[in-house]
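ping. complex inputs:
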Amino acid sequence: MASRPRTVGGFLLQLIREGTDNGHFPTEEELFEKIRMSRWLHGYGFYSEFLELDGLGPILEELRDLGLIKQARLQEDTGFAQWEVGDSWKPPRHGDNDRPPVPPGGNAGGPEEGDGGGGMREVISHPLLFALDTDDFDELVDNLFPEDEKNDR
Amino acid sequence: MTVKTHTVEPVDSLSLLSLKVASNVFDVSSGVHHLSIRDQIVRARMLVRDLKQGDKKVRRILIVGAGVAGMSAALTACELGIEEVVVVEAKDEPLALMRGVTKRHVGPYMYEWPSPFYDNQTYPEEEDKAWLGNYSSPLCWDSKLPLSANALALALEDDLVEEYANGVTHLPEIYVCAHRHTIKKFVKDFAKREASNSLLRLQKHAQLRSETLRLSANEWPALNALGKKVPINPCAQISLDFAPQYVILAAGMGEENIRLTETPGSYSGISFWANDDLLSPPKEARRIAIFGGGDGALQDVLRVLTGFEHPLKFIEHLERKQSVKRALESVTPLLLSVERQSRQFSGWTKGHFGYSRVDNHCRKIAARLAKNVRVVRHVLKAIRLSKSTTPFGDDTEVALFVREHYFDKAYLLNRFLVHLIDACFREHQRTRSKKSKSTRPTKIPLRIFWGHKAIGSAPYGRRFNILVENIQTNANMNYEADHIVVRYGITKDTVPGKQMIQVSPKSSAQRTTLCRVELPFAVPSNA
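pong. complex structure:
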C-alpha cells in the first residue's frame, strides 16, 4: 500500500502519478474533486471547504516549476489542461511497510524487464543525464566533417 | 520469511558515460582528451564493446565518419556480431584525413618514451610486449618505425580492400560521398526522437518509430571483376535507408585553430594535417615564429631545429653516443614517474595544474643534464646549421611563443626534448660567452617567449611583422618573421566535454566530463 502524503502538494503528485501510470491525465478540476472527496484529507483534520478551486493553481505551478509535473495536453472537449509527471522525474514507488523497495540493480528490471539492458539503456538514452545540452549538441553536429565545411567557404 | 535475491551483472560503463553526447548518440572523436592513433582505436573499440554488453538487444549501429576511430568502431561492431553496421562518410574514401600527409608521422607507442617498449610501432605488437598478452585490434599494422600518415592510411586501406574482395562474411557497409547536411540533420532528428522515446519508455507509454536515415551515397570499396579497387563513380550512387538504434559520431576532432589572432582577417596558418616545408633544409636565413604550447607546436619546433621527421630519430641520435645514453638513462626513472603522475592526475582533475608541474620537473631534469658537456655537445650536434646572411647567424632562429609559463598538454617526449634543447642552448651560451667568439657556422637558435601572445600581424616586405604582447606586463614588442606557424590546437568552443550531470531539465551551471581518464594501450580480444 502506498504511503500517505503529508501535504496537499504530495497528494496532488500522487494523484498525477497514478493518472500517468493509468494513461489518464487529470485536469485541475478532477484533481480538486478527488481532494475534496478524499478521506485522507478529512482524516488529517483538514476541511475540504477551505480548498477553493483557485487554491490548486499555485500548487500545480510550483510542482511544474520544480520539474515534477508537466502539462500533458488540453482536454479535447473542455479545453482544460491535463497534467502528467515531469520529463526527468519518476516518483519513487513504495513497497511494503512504507519502505522504498530495493531496486533490482544490474541491467535487468528496467522498463523492459528481462532484456538484459534496462538499467544502462535508461541512462544512455536519457535526454539529460551525461548528455550535452541541446545547443552544444547542435553545435557539435554542425562541426562534423570540418575539413569539408572549409572547402565550402 | 522469504528473502528476495536479485541477479546483478556488473557492466563496464565508463566509455558509455564519458562518450555520450545525446540520447543514444556517442562521440568518439571531438572533444577527446587523448587523441593519438592508438587512443582513437582503443576508445572506439571499448565503446562498442560496452554498448554490446550494456544493451544486449543492439542490432543496428550507424557510424558517422570513416576515419581511424569510425572504422575501428565499425569493425569491432561486426566482430562482436552486431548485425547491421553502417558507416557514412562525406569524403570519397575512408581514412581521408591521413591521405597524402607525408610530413607527419604516427606510431602507437613512440610517445610512450621512455617506457621500454617505445621503439616498435607495430600494433598491437605482442612479441616484445609480453604484458599485452592476447590483445587485438580491428586495425593492425606492422612497422618497427613510425609511419607517415599517408603510408599508414594506404596500408590500412589495402587490408580493408582485401577483406572486402575476399568476401569476408561480416563487414560494415561503408557509404562514401554522402551528403553531410543530410547526415547532420538526421543525427539531430535521431537524438530528439530517442530523447522522446526515452521519456515515453520511462512513463511506460507507446514509443515513436525510430528515425530513418535516407540518403544517396556510393558503396565503398568499388571493386572490379578481379577484386581490385577502382575509383568511385559519383553517378553510380545508391539509396540508403537505415533506422539505427545507436549513432556513433566519428567525423572530426573539432575545429583546429590556425588563426594567429581573433581579429577578423588575421593571418591563418596551414593545418596540422597538411604537408609543410619545415623539414626542408634551410636554403636561406629564416626566422620562424611558432605560436602554441602543445604537441603541435613542440613537434614543429623539433622538426625545424633538427630536420628529423619524428622525435624518435632525435632519441636515436642521442643514444648513439654511449655517455649521453647513460646520462639519459640516469633520469629515465624520474621522467617516467613524473609522466605517470601527470597523466593520472590530469585524468581526475580539471585544469592545467598537472601540466605546469610536469613541465617544471622536465625543465629541472633538462637543466641537470645540460650540466654535462657531452650532452650539450651531442644535443647541439643534432641541430641544423643556419644559413645566415650575417657572419654570426643572428638572423636565423626559431621563436616559440607560449601563452602560459609552461608547455600545455603535450607528450613527455616532445616536452622533454624541447626543454633539453633549450637548456643546452642556454648552457652553451653561458659557457661560450666566457671564451672568444667562434667563427664556426652557427646552429639554428631557439628562443622561447613564455607568457606571450600574438595580438596582430602585417606583411612587412617579404616578411611578417607580428605584434606580440607580454600577457603579464601588457608590454608589446614587434617580431619579424619569414614564416609563421600557428598551433593553437582544437578550438575549445568547437568541442563538447560539457556533459550535464542533472536530472532536471532546468539549466545548471555545472557540467562534467569523464573522458580525461587515460586509455589502455590495447583491448584484450576476449574482453
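Chain A is about 40% helix and 5% strand.
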